[in-house]
Structures are given as C-alpha cells and as structure tokens.
UniProtKB/TrEMBL annotation:
Keywords: Cell membrane, Membrane, Transmembrane, Transmembrane helix. Its main location: membrane. The chain crosses the membrane at residues 34-52. The keyword Zinc does not apply. InterPro entries: DUF1328. This is UPF0391 membrane protein MES4922_60054. It comes from the Bacteria. It comes from Mesorhizobium ventifaucium.
Amino acid sequence: MIKWIVILLIIAAAASLLGMPALAGAAATGARILIGIVLIIFLLVMLGVFAVA
C-alpha cells in the first residue's frame, strides 16, 4: 500500500508541474486517504501487540 501512496504522490507532483490541477488534486486526495488507512491499520496492529503482551 505504501507503493501506491508513493505512486499517487509522484502523479500529483507531475500533474501539478504540468498544470493539471484537477488530476493533481485527485491524486493527492487518493494518497491522503491511503495514508489515513495505513495509519489506522498501524495503530490497530500496535494496540493488538500491546494487548497481547
């Protein structure tokens, strides 16, 4: 999933430099959503590890 975040951020940066704000915004929003999902999964895993220990 981290790979998709990096790809979307690269697409957003390239689209921004090429003057395509709609595509840049969409890619950045997709990356932001994926970052949120990754953080939630990470926190759930950490809470699970601490609950078991």
